[in-house]
Every structure is written in C-alpha cells, then in structure tokens.
C-alpha cells in the first residue's frame, strides 16, 4: 500500500487513503538527524485499521452493545465486527478507501461518502441510519501535526453520531502520561454500566503516571486537551477542539512487549447511542440533515 507522504524539517507523516485515511506513521527528527516515532509504527503491509498508527472514528466511536440501538422510535442494527465482545466497534470509515481531495508538501485532505460504497458491502441497505459524508485534513508545521475531521449528514433524517481520533502514541519505558480527565465510566467489557465519577484513576492521570505500569481500557468524561506524554526521546502535548468532550485511554501496561499508549479524543462515550435517554452526559450529537460535526486535534512536540 503506497502512502501519501508529507514532511517538514522536523516531522514526517505517512497517510493511507486506501485504509481509512489513517496515519501510517508520524516521525520526529532528533538532534543527531535520525528519525524516531511519535506514533507507534504501522506494520509493513497493513491490512486493517488495527495495524495503523492512528485511525479515524465515525459516525460513532468505540463500541455499540450487541450492534444495535434504538433512536427516534426505531431499532437500528449494525454489523458486529468485534465478535469476541459481540459489538460493533469504531464506526464505519476505518477500513474504507478514501478519495484524495487536495495535497501540498505539508498537508493533505481526503473524503469518503457512504453513498459511494457498494451495496453488497452494506447488506443492500443504507449504511447506518442514513447517508453521511466525511472529510479529513492533515497539516504539518515544524513542531506539530494537526488533524481535522468533518462528518456531514447527507441523508434526509436526523441521525445520532460521534467522531474522534484513535492515535497509538509511542511510549518507550519511562514515558509519563498526564491527562486531566474529569470522571471515569464504570464499565463491563468497556461498556458503561453507570454514570461517570471521579476516582483514584482520574487522580493518578492528573498527577502523571508511568505508562508501562498503567493497565487501562476505559472511557472518561473530560477532554484530553492539554494532555502530555513525556519520555526519554522528548514529548508531545495534545490540543483538542471543544467538541471532543470525552477521552478513551487504552494502555496495555507493557504486556507482550507493547510500548504504546492510546489517548483517544472523542465526542461521545462508549455505547453512547444506548445511553441516550438515561440522563447521562454521553456526548452523542443528533445531527440534522445537512449539518456537520467537526473535531480537530493537534499533536505538538515538546522538548
């Protein structure tokens, strides 16, 4: 799979339009002129979003319990693509081929539209509740990568939705994560079972925790804006738009030699569609026909 490459003096970004317009690698130049990963390297021949450095989440993020939910008096069913947990996971654009809209030496834009997808890939039905259009733009400066994701309701009925980013940050031994999330959702298999509440985990994240001692796969109320990851090869700071009101953190805790941590800025809670009507602050947006939900994230180098 041939990536789209953009580069500045200090940053190099590979993008994979044929695989969800995902990130196939983000590298920083060190003082000695060599390149070191900011995001976990993508495998040599990626075949799935799971192989990438960062993928996009739309028109929902994380899991939908049993691949079904009710909205506007109707039950809606989604393809269960996480069978080990019986869930639909991470939206519908993550493995799709996107079209290149625009490219410069330091930026690129891509788009996809559910109306372009073959009917046999969506069981002969309109994907999701109705059709949608998505665009994503990436841009580099010498010290940052910016990503902007847009989801437009291209259909004729209101649809619930959420969007976000799923970066895998390189986290060699000794990396510290600080993130000022507000509250954690008690969960069973990553599916919320009670409203979010502050706890010892949120306090540890605010103070800072060594990532290889952290074992998490949790959804939090609160933005990842201002979160930092600092390690032996430098650090990064996240900046998030106000629409990214929730954060998912996946940290394997050094298991199986993994040296990454996912800090995922998202607009909604896990299983948010099924939390509607419970009075929880789940972040699900109800997008009217023609309206657009926008989210942006910056990853900035810090020394």
CATH architectural designation: Distorted Sandwich
Q: Count the beta strands.
A: 27
**Number of folding domains?**
1
- How far is the first residue's CA from the last residue's CA? 33 Å
Write up this protein.
With about 300 residues, this protein is mainly beta. Helix content is about 5%, strand content about 45%. It contains two helices and 27 strands.
In short:
The protein is mostly beta strands and 303 residues long. Helix content is 4%, strand content 46%. A hairpin with a 2-residue loop joins β7 (68-71) and β8 (74-77).
Which keywords apply here?
27 strands, Beta-galactosidase, Chain A, domain 5, single chain, 46% strand
SSE diagram, text form:
Blueprint: E1 4-7, E2 11-16, E3 22-29, E4 35-37, E5 54-57, E6 63-65, E7 68-71, E8 74-77, E9 87-89, E10 99-104, E11 107-113, E12 132-140, E13 144-153, E14 159-161, E15 164-170, E16 176-178, E17 183-184, E18 187-188, E19 191-192, H1 200-207, E20 209-210, E21 215-221, E22 228-231, E23 234-240, E24 246-252, E25 260-266, H2 272-275, E26 285-287, E27 292-302
Antiparallel strand pairs: 1-2, 2-3, 3-4, 5-15, 6-9, 7-8, 10-11, 11-12, 12-13, 13-27, 14-26, 15-25, 16-20, 16-22, 17-21, 18-19, 21-24, 22-23, 23-27, 24-25
